[in-house]
């Protein structure tokens, strides 16, 4: 019963933080915004077996709104520090000023290790061309991978926001190596078709498609146009961290074989999903996604989201708790 009480308290606190964040005058970096988002992250990081998909519809709606606010705030944060870094003669020498740079170093190492296990059975074979979809104004994943792990690989970064790409490109331009291996495309990935076949690996950022139905559309598009056998790497979330980022389930990856899902337990927030495009076209069925839309099949609780209401919802652990194990479906 103790764990259920803790989960109810956690959900209530997240709802309270959402109310405060939603009333901020701006989501750009500021003392108030920084404090609230820091508290939110600290609340959601500890391991928790809560199953987000079983929560009541009104809390699902709050979660969806919160993810969008987090995404908007993250964009402002990256743009702020990208602009700051661009003021240095060699921006890439000062990446440590970004407060979450160490997290990107850890995540980059994690993703490289997972990719290395599945990309090829031949020792020393690495992807020649990588696409990163949703790279943003501070493309740290591409920078970390290109600088430390994939030193001969070409990176093509896609973002629909031209201003974000301009900021990102200004960081790379002074570097004699990355400026030759990193490219930026200001376009909607849904408009890219045959070009996707040129990439050995495609990374999909966590905030591309902040609603799962939108993310599934992007995944379906990638399944239609990526080369057979190419690797797709995505970021997901697990437990309470799903209040910060969208969750990608195996059934969302129609057209791909899921190879592994890894849920970090440290301060690296995102889960890592790796999948391989099937050799032949696979019909994509979105029937399973309809039940995941907000409010579908979920009980409704009062919008106040008080502990007394949540306690009743959490009383049946068999109904409301689902421990998701890591997958390791190696070929």
Automatic annotation (TrEMBL):
The entry's keywords: S-adenosyl-L-methionine, Transferase
Chemical reaction(s) catalysed: 3 S-adenosyl-L-methionine = nicotianamine + 3 S-methyl-5'-thioadenosine + 3 H(+)
EC number: 2.5.1.43
Gene3D superfamilies assigned: Vaccinia Virus protein VP39
A Pfam family annotated for this UniProt entry: NAS
Keyword Transmembrane tagged: no
One GO molecular-function entry: nicotianamine synthase activity
InterPro entries: Nicotian_synth, SAM-dependent_MTases_sf
Top EC class, one word: transferase
GO terms for biological process, alphabetical: nicotianamine biosynthetic process
Family under the similarity heading: Belongs to the nicotianamine synthase (NAS)-like family.
Function per UniProt: Synthesizes nicotianamine, a polyamine which serves as a sensor for the physiological iron status within the plant, and/or might be involved in the transport of iron.
Protein name: Nicotianamine synthase
Species: Artemisia annua
